[in-house]
Amino acid sequence: MVEKRIQPLSRDAMAYVLAGGRGSRLKELTDRRAKPAVYFGGKTRIIDFALSNALNSGIRRIGVATQYKAHSLIRHLQRGWNFFRPERNESFDILPASQRVSETQWYEGTADAVFQNIDIIEPYGPEYMVILAGDHIYKMDYEFMLQQHVDSGADVTIGCLEVPRTEASGFGVMHVNKKDEIIEFVEKPADPPGMPDKPDFALASMGIYVFHTKFLMECLRRDANDPTSSRDFGKDIIPYIVKNGKAVAHRFAESCVRSDFEREAYWRDVGTIDAYWQANIDLTAIVPELDIYDKTWPIWSYAEITPPAKFVHDDNNRRGSAISSLVSGDCIISGASLHNSLLFTGVRANSYSRLDGAVILPNVKIGRRSQLTNVVIDHGVTIPEGLVVGADPELDARRFRRTESGICLITQTMIDKLEL
Fold first, then answer.
1. What single DSSP character describes residue 287?
2. Where along the chain is alpha-D-glucose 1-phosphate bound (predicted)?
3. Which of 65, 210, 222, 404 could serve as 149's disulfide partner, Cβ 3.0–4.6 Å?
4. Which pLDDT score, from 0 to 100, does residue 188 have?
5. CA dist list (Å): 46 to 88, 149, 256
6. CA distance 23 to 21
7. Is the pLDDT of residue 237 over 90?
């Protein structure tokens, strides 16, 4: 018989977000910021999804470990996530690598990023730890995963995606039995093991782990004393528990938060320029796969105070318009036309310009008569008058960062080189 619970398990949990990743596959987008701090969806940053999931799940103690180029991330967290109150038993700790264990040692891996902050975590007394990656786009209620963890008696519960076996070779894959107990953890296997009930699908790790806190601390201390360890959850901690303890898979579909408009469980790793562009452009669909308008599960962020977006001019070829597009506050569409595009705060699109499949980060200025197709434009870029992108693949590749699928990333440094 399952024990009746008086209050949600999330009340006794702490979420620990690993947000130190470089995100090197995003190329110049992470030259000045860590991947979790990259803008997404018009008003938010990537990390806001993991943090919002924790908050909406009822977790009120959160830690964020930062490392690589963390200034913009820390500034965002200070501005947008400073509403937690200690007198309500809430806490929000930003935990940059600060050589706490050794004067020469930064965070050496994901497990080490938790280990070095044990003395900060333990005084809060959380019964459970929810370890999260800070660089994925999804909506998930962690309470369901916590409940499964307790009910199954697992040492660790691992969040998993159901992925077609033909696409699972790029993931860490869980080989499970009929009870979803993990028999083997295989990193990027050539022949991924199928699920017992769905042989054509494999269970891929989402980088989400639930532990009893005391057990996790024991694992981290043991791992820290192992000179052969790489101090990583996926490479060291999880395989050890699979071999010596009880590890259970939690299927994302069982805790994915969906509105009435969302048909499938939505999870995206926006770790490449193509994936980042596509996930943003997906939001412009009439019925997008990810519903960011769901008020029952809001995506919290820094709520910048801005004037409304404005559309001006109504002449032939000079009409401020946006079709199947998202336009954020403080944007002025001055005689420009937008199609299937997403504009962040403070963009200025000037007369006779046309944007099609454009993801425009904050405070970009689009010069007159620009024609921009399938682009990602970095924060603060000024696009010169008459620039055409998307018509000549060879020219685009010489001037900008162009992917094989034809998406062009444009930064101010690239623009400056055009003007020399």
1. S
2. 107, 172, 187-188, 205
3. 210
4. 86
5. 27, 27, 17
6. 6
7. yes
C-alpha 416 chain-centroid distance: 30
pLDDT in tens, 165-196: 999 998 999 999 999 999 999 888 999 999 99
Residue 101 has pLDDT above 70, yes or no: no
Quick one: pLDDT at residue 187? 84
Phi-psi region of 101 (alpha: psi -120 to 50; beta: other; left: phi over 0): alpha
Q: What does the pLDDT look like over 42-72, one tens digit per residue?
A: 999 999 999 999 999 999 999 999 988 899 9
Give CA separation, 402 vs 11, 225, 268, 361, 384, in Å. Answer: 46, 45, 21, 17, 19
246 phi and psi angles, rounded to 5 deg: -125, 115
Single pTM value for the model: 0.95
Q: Is the pLDDT of residue 2 over 50?
A: no
Report the pLDDT averaged over residues 376-391.
98
Residue 107 in marked binding region = yes
Residues 245, 6: Cα–Cα separation, whole Å: 29
Q: Are 216 and 110 in contact (CB under 8 A)?
A: no
Ligand-binding site membership of 4 (annotated): no
- Cα gap 279→269, rounded to integer Å: 9
Which string of b and e fits 288-318 if b means at least 16 CB within 10 Å?
bebbbebeebebbbbeeeeeebebeeeeeeb
Report the C-alpha gap between 249 and 176 in whole angstroms: 8
- Model confidence at 392, pLDDT cuts 50, 70, 90, reads very high
What is the per-residue pLDDT for 42? 97
Q: What is the mean pLDDT of the chain?
A: 94
What is the CB neighbour count within 10 angstroms for residue 414?
Answer: 16
Which H/E stretch holds residue 150? helix 142-152
β-bridge mates for residue 365, sequence order: 348, 382
Q: Minimum mean pLDDT among 95-104, 227-236, 381-390: which range?
A: 95-104
Pairing, β 128-133 against β 201-212: antiparallel
d(CA 365, CA 111): 42
| Whole-number Å distance between alpha carbons of 321 and 312 | 8
In angstroms, rounded to a whole number, what is the distance separating the alpha carbons of residues 176 and 181? 5
CB neighbour list of residue 368: distance below 8 Å, 6 or more residues apart:
350, 351, 352, 353, 385, 386
Other Cβ atoms closer than 10 A to 323: 11
In whole angstroms, give the CA distance from residue 92 to residue 77: 9
Whole-angstrom Cα distance, residue 369 to residue 232? Answer: 50
